[in-house]
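Interim report to the steering committee. The following record documents the input for DUF1206 domain-containing protein (280 residues).
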Amino acid sequence: MSGPGTAAGAAGRAGQSDALEHLARVGLIAYGMVHVLVAWLALQLAWGGGSSESADQSGALATLAESPVGKPLLWVLAVGLVALALWQAAEVVRWRSGWSASGDTRKKAVEKTVKAVAKAVVYAALAVLAFRAATGGGQSGSGQQQQTTAGVLGWPGGRWLVAAAGLVVIGVGAHHVLKGLKKGFLEEIDLASAPPTAERTVTRLGQVGYPAKGVAFAVVGALLVYAALTFDPARASGLDGAMRTILDAPFGRVLLTLVALGIAAFGAFCFVRARYPERT
């Protein structure tokens, strides 16, 4: 006997697997570590630390690879990030079964499915970056994004696709800001098993971390839109370019420092979430 119900049940059992949950905790720690390293690179950029790495995820992983235990740790992080992607894939199947419902139940199922797909893609992409860093391959995130943007701009209607992608990224940034202001991130923490001190700590971290990450996303999206308007893929310089754009703004050093501290707070939020995870 097969069908959506049995698929959802199998996904639920997979998502509840102790082994997968333990690996997903490692993935959350890895996700947090990437953000802390990005924050450190952004601070170096703001205060002239002279780092040769780009202030983005690929730069963070490259920095980790240069440490004495970097390569083995990158393999562990990559496996954990793959587990996170699988964790969210199981959520996709579980919530997809609710699409046949009606009213608010169906609306919630569609929303949860879309979010789980987006998270699975992000975690899988970071896992690929971690594998490349562990094997000494790949290039900077800004370089990859510029190549991709150049290719898309060459398509019929490519300029509109790049602009639309930029607007979507801006929307994601706005969502992160609102999520931080409205404390929506608390749904990702199992508050029932967390002590009051942990709840207060994670609330403060989320209130700072999510808006800061949202601002970075919004700048990345704005650069994509600008690349589409000017037909210049070099403008689409990813997160590293967003950091440099913030630095070039009035009071840029202070603004970039605040964004970096906020991104570090998001990384710390991921560490707490790894201790008290709640799948959503």
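The chain is about 75% helix and 0% strand. The committee is asked to note this result when reviewing the revised timeline.
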